[in-house]
Amino acid sequence: MKRFARTLVGSLLAAGVLAPAAAAEVAIGVVIDGPWARNQDIRALSRGEILALTEGEFEVRFPESGDLVGDWTLATARANLERLLADPAIDLVIAWGPIGSQAACCLGELPKPLIASAVFEPELQGLPLADGASGVPNLTYVALPDTLASQLATFRRLVPFRKVAVLVSAAMLEAIPDLGTRTRESTRELGVEAVYVPAGSSADGALAALPADADAVFVWPQFQMPVDELQRLIDGLIARRLPSFSAVGGGDVERGMLASLSAEDFFPRLARRVALNVQRILLGEPAAGIPVAFEMRSRLRVNMATARAIDVSPRWEQLLEAEVLHPEIESGAPPLTLAGAVAEAVAANLDLVVRRREVAAGAQDVARSRSALLPRLESALEGATIDEERAAASFGSRPERSLVASASLSQLLFSDPALADLEIRRELQRARELELETLKLDVALAAATALLDLLRAETLVRIQRDNLEVTRSNLELARIRRTVGAANPAEVYRWESEIAGDRKALIDASSRRRVAGIALARLLHRDLAAPLAVEDVGLDDPGLLTGNPRFEGHTETPRRYEAFSEFFVREGLAAAPELARIDAAVAAAERRALAARRAYWAPTVGLRASFESVLSREGAGSSPAALFPGLALPGQPSSGWSLGLAATLPLFTGGARAAERTQADEELERLRELRAATEERIEQRIRIGMERTRASYPGVELAEESAAAARANLELVADAYARGAVPIVDLLDAQNAALVADQLAVNAVYDFLVDLMEVERAANRFDFFLDKSEAEAWFDRLDRYFAELRIPPLEP
């Protein structure tokens, strides 16, 4: 009875008169070209898409008897299709693969719906085509875009060559011999020679069959070659220094092929398209009228490790638009994180290095000022020679030649100016150290902002590149629509114009990325020409305030937000090095004013002791002379000492002391007013930063929701455009809306993170500077503050 029901369902489906509600169960058979490593993945992908689309409307099964794998021959594929078409237990048949698709489109009259998944060129292969559909009852297929010409052109721009070996599965070449014709036509227009090389399951056989004079290799999907043999093939091409281009993409570029222009999501998109065709047929739409055009998004992918290995240097414009693997020689260094960038900047930034030198030099001012209060010991050795006449006339007091040694000791016992100078210089040195701390915070903010700007720029480059690929895929779709008569040449020209504009936007975005990288490298004192690898930052990054679990719930209500803001202001003012630096200047000014007042009555008291010794006296005048016969002057002593204590106090300085006192008082008042003004500015900066983060944080989620909706709308409009249901203007509008929404979503994230960095700088606390105990202590103070205000914990 169940078999009869299935037969009835199949008949009604073939007639196109079955209403969806009447279909209780549908059995789908699948024909696969031959054994392949990815067959199981494709099978699971296809079944998953079909079940997801038909859930709730049909009960779809995939009988094991209806899962047939061929031997890579056209005859076996045809036999398997005929077997399933004749099986009453199967209601719908899918031909997965190019060989089965070729056979399916040549069967003629069909008793039940048949979907061919991979047709390369309907007209060249002589397949049925009418008004963009098959026109054959119960037959529909997926016409893959004819990208061979564009792929070969891209390959040749990437690497100039004269003769290209086209490596193709021997089974596919035998089943679809027209592939060679199409390739020769494409390469003739490019001015190069193409030679087809059939490949089986052996890498050595394929390498041996390559022409000796081939200078490039274009690789079609190697369905018959195991994965390990494919890797040996790729390694062999690299060893021969032959540039290779994969027609199917997948993991070929990761394995070592030079480049590919195929979409990485080709099989998921193809599986979704086949599933949509299944759904449309089950819902009663005639298969003969389902459009066959298929949109395929592609992107150039380049393996720069392979390029370096074979000594190839791609063009700038291609690398700009491409997804580049291994762009630089692997250094082994991890990507730069937000916290790592800040720490490196604080350690290596040249502005900070200069300021540290200033602080070190300023410390010597303190030492020099202190020296005035310490004992001073001096020694002297004086040798003198005078003329003989004056020596003789000195009566022995000034010998013609003398050598005298002396030593002196002086000690300042009390000097208020000297004491004031030492204290003032200590405060000024403290101000220099606090100015260094201020600069550290400024450099940390600059480094964090520069890294976020670089991440923003890189993301915007990716968005512009994705948008360019969408435009390229739309161009390919427009060309397909023109080929099947569903579009006019103007649509193709419009998309070509859009591509030019998108490429210019991508170039601008790439330039902004380079500028952002140079700015960050300068802050880190790195090579400005070397690219930087950076790690993305999320809102839940543990180095951010928002990434700490204890932050949650402190700003959820207006009252809690106000309390949090007040606490943030209080903590910020207490930790502000700008205020502490002004406090040091105030202390220095107060001491200067005190010294100016003491100058009227505080004397300077000093002690001095000296010792002198005459080492030698020679020549005229070295002996005492006789004033009268028998009466000589006493001789000069050979040594002597002295000790003195002095106190000095200026009595009149011409008004200098009064002027200095007035100036010191005015400077003190100026600094006090400056501190008040600085405190206001810091509080203003903190509160403004809080308001900006409060406004920008919700914008992140809203922008992401808008971007998701815009992308979903773009997919719907693109699908409708492919079916000819909407004009090109609608698709352009949808694509532009998706681009703008993606850009806004990216900017929302990084705008909030920059706002967060600004508010943390204003509050003089960067979370990535705090260890775990310091962060916990900060939140403990926050919780105590909330408790003082009697704000209860927020219930979950």
Concise synopsis of the structure shown:
The protein is an alpha/beta fold and about 800 residues long.
Record the SSE blueprint.
Blueprint lengths: L1 H14 L10 E7 L6 H16 L5 E2 L5 E3 L4 H13 L5 E5 L1 H7 L9 E6 L19 E5 L4 H11 L4 E7 H6 L2 H13 L2 E7 L3 H7 L6 E4 L7 H13 L4 E3 L5 H4 L3 E2 L5 H17 L18 E3 H6 L6 H6 L1 E3 L12 H11 L1 H22 L4 E10 L2 H6 L7 E14 L1 H68 L5 H36 L33 H18 L1 H22 L5 E15 L7 E3 L2 E2 L6 E10 L7 H67 L5 H35 L9 H17 L8
Parallel strand pairs: 1-2, 1-3, 1-4, 4-5, 5-6, 7-8, 7-9, 9-10, 10-11, 12-13
Antiparallel strand pairs: 11-12, 14-15, 15-16, 16-19, 17-18
Helix pairs in contact: 2-11, 3-4, 5-7, 8-9, 14-17, 15-17, 17-18, 17-20, 17-22, 19-21, 20-21, 21-22
Give a quick set of tags describing it.
796 residues, alpha/beta, seven-stranded mixed beta sheet, six-stranded parallel beta sheet, 19 strands, 55% helix, disordered N terminus
How are the strands of the largest sheet arranged? 8-7-9-10-11-12-13
Give the structural class. Answer: alpha/beta
Major sheet description = 7 strands, mixed
Quaternary state of the chains: single chain
Fraction of residues in β-strands:
5-15%
The helix content is 40-55%
Distance between the termini: 57 Å
What would you note in describing this structure?
This protein has 796 residues and is α/β, with parallel strands linked by helices. 55% of the residues lie in helices and 14% in strands. It contains 23 helices and 19 strands. The strands form 4 sheets. Strands 8-7-9-10-11-12-13 form a 7-stranded mixed beta sheet, with helices on both faces. Helix 9 (227-239) links the parallel strand 9 and strand 10 (244-246). Helix 17 packs antiparallel against helix 20. The longest helix has 68 residues, at 416-483. The chain is elongated. Residues 1-23 have low confidence and may be disordered.
